[in-house]
Specification:
The protein is of the alpha+beta class. It has a single domain, classed as Lipoprotein like domain (Double Stranded RNA Binding Domain, 2-Layer Sandwich), CATH 3.30.160.150. It is 30% helix and 33% strand. The longest helix is centred in the last third of the chain and has 30 residues.
Length: 146
């Protein structure tokens, strides 16, 4: 049924996403945000033994107070990852772009609980940014040099 419309699952046999698995090397992480991002990217795409591509990236985050009551304060963590995918055979940039998303957390009376909520929000933010980046890569995978 789906074959007639040209639909092919990206993770199916011969799907474009399979061409990305274990083929992208990532710059070494410099901080906790980079580490969480690369960890999720490698979870989704696999760690490359001998990469065909190298991804450079720059993570920027901001924290915005969005609500303040007598008991709690709510924060949004906004993150942007600017990235470039280089073909290691030619040295050329074959794809570049950026992804932006946010995560939120609330403060509590306990400093420990607030720090735990903040760390969890940071981790969730890097996960969603990595997932957005993988979605972008899958979208262009069919146009990348093999």
């Amino acid at each position: 049924m789906c074959g007639a419309c040209g639909f092919r699952p990206v993770y199916g046999t011969g799907g474009v996403a399979t061409a990305l698995r274990h083929r992208i090397g990532f710059d070494d992480p410099k901080d906790k945000y980079d580490f969480a991002l690369v960890e999720r990217l490698e979870d989704r795409l696999g760690r490359a033994g001998t990469p065909r591509y190298r991804m450079t990236y720059d993570v920027k985050t901001t924290r915005d107070r969005v609500a303040n009551t007598t008991d709690t304060t709510r924060y949004h963590l906004v993150g942007t990852v600017a990235y470039r995918l280089l073909d290691l055979t030619t040295g050329q940039v074959v794809h570049s772009g950026s992804v932006t998303n946010f995560s939120a957390y609330s403060t509590a009376d306990s400093t420990v609980a607030t720090l735990a909520a903040q760390r969890d929000a940071e981790r969730r933010l890097m996960t969603v940014l990595a997932d957005d980046l993988v979605t972008r890569l899958i979208g262009v995978a069919g146009t990348l040099p093999q």
